[in-house]
Design brief:
This protein is α/β, with parallel strands linked by helices. It contains 13 helices and twelve strands. The longest helix is centred in the middle third of the chain and has 17 residues.
Length: 363
C-alpha cells in the first residue's frame, strides 16, 4: 500500500466493542479507516497519539443548538469534548416550522425550557425560513465543525398549525391533526432525523406557561406516529413526568407499534418519586422482550439547572402564595417577596400536589 491520508500512531484504542483498550496505530484514507494495528504505511499526515485515547466519534444525542447552529460554525461545548455529531431539536422545542407572527413565541419557549437567553436568540436568529426544510437549508449555508442532525419539534409544529390555540394547549381538530402529521412526514422526508415532544410540567416558557405539547391528545400523537410510518424513517424522542405511568408508557408503546420507528425517553430520578426509574426500566425490559425498539436516555452526570424568578423553574413555583403573584412584573414580585410577613407565609405553605419534579426543587 502506498501512502494514506492519515496515520494516528501509538494511541490507546477504545473501539466501542466493549473489549479491553489496546495500543495500536490507525490508518485513514479517503475518510475511511483502512487499517488498525502496527501500520507500516506512511501517512501524508501523522499524529503522535502516545498516551492519548483514540475512540470512534461520539454522538451527543441530546442537545439544543437549534439557534446557535444558524449563526455559529462551532458547536461548542460538544465539539471540544470529542463529539463528532450532535442531535438537535430535543424536548419538542425549536425554531421551525414557524410563521412570522410566532418568532417571539418560539424564543420564549426555548428560553424557558432550556434557559438559553432570549436576548442572544433575538439577536442571532435570522428567521430566513418557514418550513422545516427551509430551516435545514438555512443551516446548510454555514460550515460547521461537526456533523448535525435535527428533529422536528412538536411545540413548533403545534404553534405553526394552531397558533394561539396550540400555545394554550387546546385540543386540535381532526384537520389540524392531519396537517401536523403531514408536516412531520414531509420534514422527515426532507432529511430530519426524527420528531420530539415534551409532556413534563418542568418545561415552561419564559413567561411560566406550560409547554404547548404537554396535554396533546393520544389521537394527535398517534397521527404524528403515522406520519413517521408514511415517511419510512425517523425516530421519536419523548420527555414525560410519567405521572400516569400506565397510560403514558402504553402510549409510548403504541407510538412505536404504529410508526414502526425507534423511540427514546429521558430516564431521570426524582426524590419525590424515588423508585419510578425502576418501574420504567421494568416496563422497558418488557417492551424490549416484545421486540419494541424503545430505549432510555440516561445522563452521564447529574442534570444542572439554573434556578431563578426569570427562569422556567425555581423552588416557589408550586406554593399558593407565589402562584397569586406569578403574573406580576419581576420588580413587583421581588418587592413583595422581600416583605418578611410574605416570606414567612410562603415558606410555611404546603406544596401543591401533582408536580413531582418542581416540588423536588423546593426541598
Amino acid at each position: 500500500m502506498g501512502e494514506v491520508d492519515l496515520v494516528i500512531r501509538g494511541g490507546t484504542v477504545v473501539d466501542g466493542s466493549g473489549g479491553a483498550a489496546y495500543e495500536a496505530d490507525v490508518a485513514i484514507d479517503k475518510g475511511v479507516i483502512v487499517e488498525i494495528g502496527k501500520v507500516a504505511t506512511k501517512g501524508r499526515e501523522e499524529i503522535d497519539a502516545k498516551g492519548l485515547l483514540v475512540t470512534p466519534g461520539w454522538v451527543d444525542i441530546h442537545t439544543h443548538y437549534d439557534g446557535q447552529v444558524t449563526w455559529d460554525s462551532r458547536m461548542t461545548p460538544s465539539s471540544i469534548h470529542g463529539a463528532t455529531t450532535v442531535v438537535m431539536g430535543n424536548c419538542g422545542v425549536g425554531f421551525a416550522p414557524v410563521k412570522k407572527t410566532d418568532h417571539d413565541r418560539l424564543i420564549r419557549l426555548m428560553e424557558g425550557v432550556e434557559d438559553i437567553p432570549g436576548a442572544a436568540l433575538h439577536e442571532g436568529l435570522s428567521w430566513k425560513w418557514e418550513s422545516f426544510a427551509d430551516y435545514m437549508a438555512a443551516v446548510e449555508t454555514l460550515p460547521h465543525d461537526i456533523d448535525l442532525v435535527m428533529q422536528v419539534p412538536h411545540g413548533a409544529v403545534r404553534v405553526y398549525v394552531m397558533g394561539e390555540r396550540g400555545a394554550k394547549r387546546e385540543p386540535a381538530t381532526d384537520a389540524e391533526i392531519a396537517e401536523m402529521r403531514e408536516i412531520v412526514r414531509d420534514a422527515i422526508k426532507a432529511g430530519a432525523i426524527g420528531f420530539s415532544t415534551s409532556r413534563t410540567v418542568a418545561h415552561r416558557t419564559s413567561d411560566g406557561d406550560l409547554t404547548p405539547t404537554i396535554g396533546a391528545a393520544d389521537k394527535e400523537m398517534i397521527a404524528i406516529a403515522e406520519g413517521l410510518k408514511e415517511a419510512g424513517a425517523g425516530v421519536l424522542q419523548w420527555v414525560s413526568d410519567f405521572r400516569d405511568v400506565d397510560h403514558e408508557f402504553s402510549l409510548v408503546e403504541k407510538l412505536v407499534e404504529v410508526s414502526g420507528r425507534p423511540l427514546s425517553f429521558s430516564l431521570v430520578q426524582a426524590d419525590v418519586v424515588p423508585d419510578q426509574w425502576r418501574e420504567l426500566l421494568k416496563r422497558l425490559d418488557g417492551a424490549a422482550g416484545r421486540g419494541l425498539p424503545i430505549k432510555a436516555q440516561v445522563q452521564g452526570r447529574p442534570v444542572g439547572l439554573m434556578l431563578g424568578l426569570q427562569g422556567s423553574v425555581h423552588p416557589f413555583l408550586t406554593r399558593p402564595s407565589y402562584r397569586a403573584i406569578a403574573d406580576k412584573p419581576l420588580d413587583e414580585r421581588v418587592a413583595i417577596m422581600r416583605d418578611p410577613a410574605f416570606r414567612a407565609k410562603l415558606l410555611a405553605e404546603d406544596l401543591e400536589p401533582g408536580h413531582p419534579f418542581l416540588n423536588s426543587l423546593a426541598g
